[in-house]
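Bench notes, bay 3.
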Amino acid sequence: MKKFNKGEWSELYVFFSILADGKIYAADENLNRIEQTFYSVLKVIRENKSYTRDEANKLILIRSDNESLEIPIQKFVDMAPKLLNEIRTARGSSFAIPEISDLLNDIAVTKVKAESSRKGDLTVQIHDDYTGTEPIIDFSIKSYLGGTPTLLNASSATTAEFILSHDIDEKLAEQVNAVTSGSKIKDRIEFLCANGYELEFNRLLDRTFYHNLAMIDYKMPELLSLLFLSSYFVKGKKISDVVAYLCGHYYEFSDQELVEYKVKDLLVAIALGMVPKTKWTGLDEANGGYVIVKKDGDSVCYHIYDRNRLKDYLYQHTKFDSPSSSRTGAGVLNISEGKGAMKLTIQIRFS
C-alpha cells in the first residue's frame, strides 16, 4: 500500500467522518464547533462515484456508471476513529495504513487524496437551509493532525526581489553574505539597516503570481512582499501583528483598517482557490468553503456563507514562515555594478 503524510490521510478521515455523521458542523472565528449550526450532507462525490445514505440511515449506497454497492454505515462509524488513531500515532513523514485496505476495496476507493491540481479536496451535496436548495460544492481540507499546515507554500513563484536604497561596495556586500547565524536572513537585513541601507520592493519574479495578487488589488504584490519583509522584525510573525508593524513604518500603507481588509481578502483568496503558478480568474474553486481537522480529530467547517468568520479565523491564526534558505536561495545579497538586490521567498503557515 502507498504511503501518505498525515495531511493526506486526513482527507480520507474527513471522508469517513462525514459519511458516518451525515453532517458537517460550522466553526466560530476561533475554530470552536457551533453545535446548533451544521450542514446536512446528502451525498459525497469521489472518483466519479456518489456515496449517499439510505432513508433509514443504515446503509451507504455507492453508485457509479457501471456499479452499485451497499455498505453498512456502521463500517464508517467504526473505521473513522481507528483511522484517526493511526494518523495521530504514526511515525515518520509518510506512512501506510494496511488495516484500511480491505475497506477501501469494499467501497471502491482507489485514491487516498484529491488530485494536487484541485483546490477542492472534498465534493459534497448538502441541504442548504438558507435557500432550500441542494447544491454540489467543494471544500478545501486543512489538518492539524500532522502539525500546523501551510496556507501558501514557498516556491520559486512566491519569491520577491528587493533592491538596496543606494549603491553598495563589494567589500560590504561580502560582509553581509558572511553572516551565517541561525537567523541569518534577519541578521543580514538588520546589518544592512545598521549601515544605512533600506530594502525596497522591486518585483515578484513570477508573472502569474503577480497577476493573481493584482486581481485582488493592484498594490497587493508590493503589499504582500513588504509584509513578508516586515515579518523579520516581528516576534512570532503573526500576520495581524505584522500588519500593525507595517502600517507603523510605511506611510503608503499607514491606513491599518484598509490594509487589514485587503490582507483578509488575500488570505481567503488563497484558501479558496488562488495558487501562485496557475492564472486565477477571481473565482473560488473551493466554492463550499474550508474544512479543518483539529488536533483532537474534530472536523469543522467555514461555509461560504460564513466568509466573515473565515476571514477572521485566517487573519488571527496565520503567520509568515521562513522556508529553508538553502532550498530557496533566499537572503543572498547579489551585486551588479554597485547595485544590490536580495530575494526573499514568501510562505504563510497556520499558527
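Next record in the batch:
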Amino acid sequence: MTLPPLPEEDHHCESCGLRYDDLTTSAALGLIRSHPTRYRRRLQHLPIDVLRRRPAPGVWSPLEYACHVRDVYDVYDTRVRRTLTEHEPVLEPMRNDERAEQRAYNQQPLAAVLLDLEHKADRFAALTSEISEPQWSRSAVRLPQERRTIRWMVRQAAHEGLHHLHDIGVGTTDKAVLFDVDGVLVDSYPAYRRIWSRWADHRNLDPDLVWSHTHGRRPVDTIQEIAPHLDAAAEYRLIREFMAHETDNFPVYPDAATVLHRLQNRRWGVVTSGRTPTVLHRLRAGGLPDPPVLVDSSQVRRGKPDPEGYLRAAQLLDVPAPDCLVIEDAPAGVAAARTAGMTVIALRTTHADDELAAAHRRADTLGDAFPLITDWLDRTHP
C-alpha cells in the first residue's frame, strides 16, 4: 500500500484553517491538553447509533475519530521519545484505516475511549513540556526524504485532535472567550503613550492626533493612516527601537491571572495587534499562562477594526463566531468583534463609555467583568 505523504513542516490545513508556522509549541500543548474535555463534551451525549455511524463510505464515525486521536497521542509519545534518544530514527507508519479495522475502533466502549484519550494526552503533554529549546529541532524519518522535527510532531499531534473535532462536526454548545492584550491583560497605556509621543515628535506630527489612531490597531496601520508619505516598515522598526527602551514597563493587570486561572477548563485565546514573541514575553513575565490560541498581527492581512483576527481565532478554537465572547478596551477592537458576529464586553481601562457604546456590556476592570463572563458562559445560548 502506498503511504500518503506527511504534511510539510509549514503545513497549512485548508479544512480547519490551522497553519503550523502560526502554532507555537506552547499553544500546541494547550490544544492537546484541551482535547480530552472537548471530545467528551462533543461525544458523551450522542445517541449510540450516531456515535458509531459512518456518515459516508470511507468516512469514520465520531467514535472512530476519538479512538484515532487517542492512538495518535500514544504513537507520537513513542516517536518523540525515540527522536530524543536516537539519531534520526526511522518511524513506523500508523496505517490509520488498517488500525481502525484491526482494533475494532467502532466497537469500543465510549467511556473507556475517553478515559484513555485523557491519559494519553496528559502523558504526551507532560513529555513534550519538558523538551528543551535545542531538542525541538531533532528529527526523525518515516520515508526517504520525509524528515520531520520534534516541533513538527507536536504540531501534527495537536492538528490531528483539532482537525477531527472539525470532522465530527461543529454541533457543540462549547463557547470561547477571546481577549485583546493591551488594555485588557497588560497595562501598556503609559508605555505606549510615551513611545508614540516620541515618534510623533521625531516626525513633527501632532502627538494627540497620532495617539488617537493607535488603540487596538497594528502599528503599521496607524503609520499608514497618519503619515502615508513615510515608509511604514521603516517607521515600525523605529517604533520598535523606542519600545526596546521601555523594557519592563508593561505589567499585567492585577486581576488577569485570577481570571485566566478560572477559565483554565474553558476555551480561550488572544487576538492582538502585537507580535507573538513580545506578547508571550509580557504575559509570562506577569505570571500568566500561554494562550491555547494566539492570533497576532503577522497572521492577518488586515488588522482591527477588520474582523479577520477574531474570526481566525474562532476557527482555530473550533467555535462558531456567535459562540465567542470578546474582551476589548478599544473602539477598533469592539468594532472588529461586532463585525465578526461576537458578543463584546468593553473595559474602561483606556476609553470612555461614549467611545465604547458599540459594546454589549461595559466594566471598569477585568475583575469586574468576570461575573459578566461567567454569566455569558453559563447561558445555553449567547
